[in-house]
Fold these 4 entries.
Entry 1:
Amino acid sequence: MHRNWIDAPSDETKAAAHALLADASAPDARFALLLDRAFVPAEEWRRFVANVPGMPLYGGKYAGDGVEQASPWLCAVPQEGASPGPWLDALFRLCAGRPMLTMLQTRLPLQQLRAHLQQRLEASVAGETFVVRYADTRCLPQVFEVLDPAQRAAFLESIDGWWYVDRAGALQSLPKQSADAVAALPFVLSPEQQQALQTAALPDTLIAYLRERQEVFGHLCGSPSAIHRCVHAVLSGLAKTTQISADAYRQVLAALDVEGLLSDAEATQDA
C-alpha cells in the first residue's frame, strides 16, 4: 500500500508545475529535478528511473552499503516534460504523497549542479558534522528557516529558482535572498540553530512513532498535513525542548481525537 507522508498534489499544483517546466524551453534556462528516492520501494523506483537518466546526488562523495539506495536522484527535465504528457504524469504518480519532489532552475550543467549541491550537503555544530537532508521536502523549509541571511544566500547561490512540493501538496518556492556576505561552506551552525532544527523535527518524529504503534494508540486518519498541523500546534504550546514527554503524547492524542484525526485502537485491529 502506498503510504502518504504529505498530501497528494492537487490539480492546481500539477498545472503550476506544467507551467513552470514550460520555461525549460528558454535557451538560458535549465531545469533539473531532485528526487528523494528514500520514500520509494526499490522495484517502483527501478521502473521509473529506467526512463529518467540521471545521477545519484551522493555519487563520488559518500560510499558504503546502502548509500546508493539512500541517495537522492538528480536528473535533467526531459524536453517533453513541459507538456502534460506521460512522463510528467508518471512523475506525479511517483511523488504523490511523498516528500520527494524538488525542481531547480539554474544555468549550471547537471554534473556541475551535483558538485554544487554536494557542497551544501553537510553542516556542523561544535565540530560534529551531519548530513543536511534538504531533498526531503519536509526538512527543506525547516533547514532554510534556521539559516542566517548569509547562509541562506550561500544555499541558493547559482540557483535561479528552487521549488518544492510541501506538506499540503502545493508547489512552493524558497524566497530569493540578498545578503551583504555569503557564508562559507560547509555550514557551521550555532547550538541555537541546532536546537531549532531538532524542535522543528519533533512533530514528524512523534507522528512516525504513533504510526508504528497504531494497535496501541489508534489509527491516524485525515490528511497528513492536518495531522502535522494538529501535532505542531500542541507541541508549540509546550515548553521548548528537543524531547517529547509522556504528557506531550497525552496532549497530542487528545487533540487528534478532538479533531477527528484518530480512531480507537480496537477499531484499527478490527479493520
Entry 2:
Amino acid sequence: MKRQIFVIILLIYFQPAYSQGNTFYQFDFLIGNWVGSGVDIDKNKSEISASYSYTMGNTYIEVNHHSEIEKKNKKFKNEVHDDWGMISYDKQRGVYIYRQFNIEGYYNQFILIDSLSNENTIVFESEQTENFLTEGKFRLIVKKINNFEIETFLDLVSTGKEISYGKNKLIKEE
C-alpha cells in the first residue's frame, strides 16, 4: 500500500516536468485515428476519417483528413476531399503552426491562438492562404468533448462576421 501511494506521488510530482518537455502536450488528446460525420455550409453531409500522429522523432504532428461529401442537390456529383498537413512549433516566433495542403490545390497556414485556446479547445486562425479566398481569415476550432470524442468547426471571419463553413463530430477509434 505504501508503495502504491509512493508511486502515485511520484507520478503527480513528475507530470508537470513531462508536460514541459513535450512540446505538443496540448495536442496529445488528438493523437490517434478518428471517424465521424459532418455538415458543410450548404447542409451537405459527409463521412470523415482523420488521423493525427507524431512523426520525425516527435518533432511534428502529421495530420490526415479524408471526407466523402454527399451532395444534397442530386444534380451535383458527390465529392471527395483530402488534406494533409503538419503541426510544428516555431521556436523563433513562439507559435504553433499548422500547414494544410488540400487536394483541390489550395494551401492554408494556420497559427494557434493562445488567447482563445485552453485544455479542451484548440483554436487555429489562418495567417496565409494560397489559391483560395484572400479576404478574411479562417478559424479552425477543435473542441474536446471527452477523451474519445471531438467536434471540429471551420469558420470564416470576415468584416466582423463569422460564417460557419462546417461542423464535424468525430469518435476516436480504439
Entry 3:
Amino acid sequence: MPATANRLRCLLEGHGQNVYQGATLMNTAFKRRSWVESANGHADFPLQNLPLGVFSHGQTGPRGGVAIGNRIFDLHAATESGVFQGQAADVADVASRDQLNDFLALGAAARQALRTALLQLLDEDSPQRDRLQGMAGLLLPMSECTLHMPARVGDYSDFYVGIHHALNVGKLFRPDNPLLPNYKYVPIGYHGRASTLCPSGTAVRRPSGQTLAAGQESPVFGPCQRLDYELELGVWIGPGNVQGEAIGIDRAAKHIAGFCLLNDWSARDIQAWEYQPLGPFLSKSFATTISPWVVTAEALEPFRRAQPPRPDGDPQPLAYLLDDHDQQGGALDIELEVLLLTARMKADGLAPHRLGLSNSLNMYWTVAQMVAHHSVNGCRLQPGDLLGTGTLSGPGEGQYGSLLEMTAGGKQPVTLPNGEVRMFLQSGDEVILRARCHRKGYASIGFGECRGVVLD
C-alpha cells in the first residue's frame, strides 16, 4: 500500500508537466490497430480514442471502463486480474471506481500512464493478446451495459462562447446591436444546476413555469410551449485549485481533463419572461444531457488548432486571458452535429434528420480562457466540475445549434423530409448530438451520442 501511495504521489506532483508535449508523444499511435476487431475503423472509439466512463452490467454495480469499438474494457476486472503493472496499475485502480472524480484529480501524468498501458494492451501485437482474449468478463458488449454519469458533478457552469449563436440570437432582439458591449472582453457565463445533469438516453420531461404572451400584461403558469435544444461541448475539470488562488491562463490547460457533448435544454418562453435582470433560472435548470464518455485531452491532441484570429477592430483579450501557447494551439477542430428523430419518423423506420452541422472552431474564447476567467476571482474549481461552452452555431444556414435560430425566434417553421413541421420541440421528439474529429493521416475519433426524448 505505501508503494501505491508513493507512485500516485509522484503522478500528482508531475501533473504540471507540459501536457501538450506529453499528449503528442501519446498519439504516435495513430496508425496502430487493435485486436478488438470492432475498434478498427470504428466511427467513435478506435484504439486512438480510449475514452473513460462509468457503466454497469447485469447485477454488477457501477464501475469504471474504457470504450473500445463496440465493447467496454472493464477496468475493475482488469485490475482484479493483475493486467496492469506499476503506476498504470495504481491509476487503473482509481479509474475503476464508481465515479471518475478521483481519477480526474490525478492530472495529465496519470491519464498518460493509463493511456500508454491501454495502447499496449489493446494493440493487435500486444504480448498479452492471447491472455486478454481468454479472460471472461474483461470486454463487455456496450449494448448490454448501462452507462452512467462519469463523475459526481459538484458544480456546473455554462458559458456563451459561440459567437455566431450570440450574434444570431442578438439580432432577434437587438437587430442594430446584437452583441452587448462586454461580449468581446468577457467570457460570459452563468452558474447552472448540477443536480439535473443526466446521461444520454434519459428522457426529458417538458417543464412548466411562468410565461408572458405577446400583448399581455400579466403572466400565466403552464407547460413550456417553446422547448429547444442547444448544441454544446462539455469540459471536464481535472485537478482543481485552492479557493482564493486563480488558475493562470498559462496553466489552465493542465486543469482540463477531457470533453463530452452537452445539450443545454432550454424553455424559451419561460426564459424570455424570467431572464431579466439576473439571467436564466427555471428555463435552464430542469435538464442538461451529456454524452457519457470522457474523451481525454490526450486523445484530442492531434485535432488542436490555432485559435482563429479575431476580426479587425475587435479588442485583444486582457492580459489575464492572453497566452501565446494557448493562442497557437488552444482551439479544437471538432465537427458537431444535431439531429432530430420524431415519434412519427421512428414509427415509420426513418433515419434521424440532420438539423445543423457546426464546428468547435466557432468558439470566440478558448477553453483555457474559460477556465482562467472562471477562477480569476479565486473561485474554486474541483475535479469533476463541468463547464458548458454555450451553443456552438456556425455562421450560416444549416449550421445552427438551436431551433431558436433555425426558426428566427419561432417565426419561420422548419419542414422535415417526411412533411412534419416544427417550430419548437414536441412530445416524442428525440434530439441527438454527435461529434467527430477528422485529420488527414490520423484515425478519426468521436464522442458517442448524446440523446434525449421529450416527454409531456
Entry 4:
Amino acid sequence: MKTLITTEQKRLLENSIVSFSTSSIRCRPNLVAVSCVKVVAEDKILITDNFFGKTRKNLLDNSMVSMAVWSPKGTKGWQFKGTARYCTRGKWKKVVDRMKENKGLAHKAAVVIQVKEIYNLASPNS
C-alpha cells in the first residue's frame, strides 16, 4: 500500500522548519533543521542541502531517514520515514537550483525522500 502525504501535511511541511534525522553507518544519530522543503509527489519530499556536513556523509552511507513537523500551536504533528537519494546533478538538483527559498544559499544538492511511513505525533493512537 502506498503512503500518501495529505494536503494538510504538505502545507505544514512547506511552511515550517522541519526536523530531519539521519544516522551514520555506526548508528550515531544526527538531527538538523531544514526550511527548504517541497512535496513533489504524493509520496516524495524534496529538501535542499544548503548546510549539511554530518548529514551529507550520513545520507551517502545510510539512506534511511526520518522527518518531523509540528503546527505552530503543537496541536498537529507528523513523522515521515523513508529512504533518501542525494542528488548533485539531474532533474532534482535543477529544481532546488530554481527554488526561490534557496536564493543566496549554497544549494549543493537535492535530497529526494521516498516516504514509506507516516505517523501522527499529535494523536499517536490514531
